[in-house]
Design a protein that fits this description.
The chain contains 12 helices and 13 strands. The strands form 4 sheets. Strands 3-2-1-4-5-7-11 form a 7-stranded parallel beta sheet, sandwiched between helices. It has a two-stranded parallel sheet with strand order 6-13. Strand 4, helix 3 and strand 5 form a beta-alpha-beta unit. Helix 3 packs parallel to helix 4. The longest helix is centred in the first third of the chain and has 22 residues. 42% of the residues are buried. It binds nicotinamide-adenine-dinucleotide and ligand LT3Y6G4Z. Nicotinamide-adenine-dinucleotide binds next to helix 1, helix 3 and strand 8. It is found in: Endoplasmic reticulum membrane. It comes from Muntiacus reevesi. Its main location: endoplasmic reticulum.
């Protein structure tokens, strides 16, 4: 860790800094980057909690802006030493159009890259996703794979397509000359399913369970393993990469890293129960309570209902053909590339991650 005697001279920009992951990255930077002079938080929707951050020694600049607007991005990036680009539409529920997902996730990322080049920012970290790899449209499992594991990364859904395109833009931009004549250094981090304080889907499951009398019903076989990673460790990896990218540019530039920690490999539902169980919910069934073909039918029905109801209201349930396919396909990573390349070790143990998440769900109970 850089010693605190170091002068505070760096300017960081976090796009999507008010999101689930973004907020943790912002708070982690303020806690663990002693060289920070200014922290810019760029987001379409600024959170009220930002005000509490403005009382510390670091200048916190909240910027309400849209990554699809190149001029807004350039104004926010100008003068920054490091950009951490987490902003994006994480929509696998059909809430927004494919065009909008592309515009935000791909064109927005291109705007960030061009802003770095035009204004002279040299270090860009992109929050990619496991979904850049899979599960693919064939539903092939990815079992404890790493960054070099061969896998046919073929997608059709707008979200993974957009993340894959954006990641490629970021990696291809590595080495481009920025204003001032020095090279841009980029890398991409691929979290698996992030959990922790602020995870809206976890809250949705919790509220669903409360509505069903404290029960959730198993839909996916327990044997289907899903990789999950605690949000605090994902944030820590972003902070560490940002710190190490300058003097390890030759090794890290243009690289991708899965985000991982010591969270156990479990099915998506069993993993969620690690937190929802201590909060009073019970997962009914040791095996799926209904046949898979019926789930497929219900998922298709949800898609039809979403389409029919769209003129009246947004109907976006958790179950749709894509989420069912992802939930039902093993996707876990086992790698140490981040440790080998920049000394990453999880900041939070599994026990700490679990305790923090349970504590948060319990507070969410009040907001049911
Ligand atoms: N949540 C996960 O499990 C997960 C896993 C892997 C990767 N990721 C990636 O991490 C990043 C953050 O995801 P999250 O789960 O925190 O999502 P989130 O929706 O909580 O946060 C995204 C943030 O981006 C902002 N944003 C959206 N469109 C914008 C625009 N046009 N201009 C400016 N800001 C905009 C939103 O307001 C929000 O604050 C995304 O890029 C996502 O693809 C998430
Ligand atoms: C209704 C049941 C079938 C239930 O089990 C569905 C769960 C489903 C909503 C989730 C299962 C796997 C999740 C995805 C995974 O954790 C990784 C993701 C990558 C990230 O970039 C964005 C979020 C997500 C797509 C995540 C979304 C929810 C699931 C599909």
């Amino acid at each position: 860790m850089a010693n605190s005697a170091q002068t505070q001279e760096l300017v960081y920009l976090v796009t999507g800094g008010c999101g689930f992951l973004g907020e943790h990255v912002v708070r982690m930077l303020l806690q663990r980057e002693p060289r920070l002079r200014e922290l810019r938080i760029f987001d379409l929707h600024l959170g009220p909690w930002l005000e509490e951050l403005k009382t510390g020694p670091v200048q916190v600049t909240a910027i309400q802006g849209d990554v699809t607007q190149a001029h807004e991005v350039a104004a926010a990036v100008a003068g920054a030493h490091v950009v951490i680009h987490t902003a994006g539409l994480v929509d696998v529920f059909g809430k927004t159009s494919p065009e909008t997902i592309h515009e935000v996730n791909v064109q927005g990322t291109q705007n960030v890259i061009e802003a770095c080049v035009q204004t002279g920012t040299r270090f860009l970290i992109y929050t990619s996703s496991m979904e850049v790899v899979g599960p693919n449209i064939k539903g092939q499992p990815f079992y404890r794979g790493n960054e070099n594991t061969p896998y046919e990364a073929v997608h059709r859904h707008p979200y993974p397509c957009s993340k894959a395109l954006a990641e490629r833009l970021v990696l291809e931009a590595n080495g481009r000359e920025v204003l001032g004549g020095l090279p841009l250094v980029t890398c991409a981090l691929r979290p698996t399913g992030i959990y922790g304080e602020g995870h809206q889907i976890m809250k949705d499951f919790y509220h669903q369970g409360l509505r069903l009398g404290g029960r959730l019903f198993r839909a996916i076989p327990a044997s289907v393993e899903h990789g999950r990673v605690y949000v605090g460790n994902v944030a820590w990896m972003h902070v560490l990469v940002a710190r190490e990218l300058e003097h390890r540019a030759a090794l890290m530039g243009g690289q991708v890293y899965f985000c991982y920690d010591n969270s156990p490999y479990k099915s998506y539902e069993d993993f969620n129960m690690e937190f929802l169980g201590p909060c009073g919910l019970r997962l009914v069934g040791t095996r799926p309570l209904m046949p898979y073909w019926l789930l497929v039918l219900l998922a298709a029905l949800n898609t039809l209902l979403q389409w029919l109801l769209r003129p009246l209201l947004l109907y976006a349930p958790l179950l749709n053909p894509y989420t069912l396919a992802v939930a039902n396909t093993t996707f876990t990573v086992s790698t140490d590339k981040a440790r080998r390349h920049f000394g990453y070790e999880p900041l939070f143990s599994w026990e700490e991650s679990r305790t923090r998440t349970i504590r948060w769900v319990r507070t969410a109970e009040g907001s049911a």
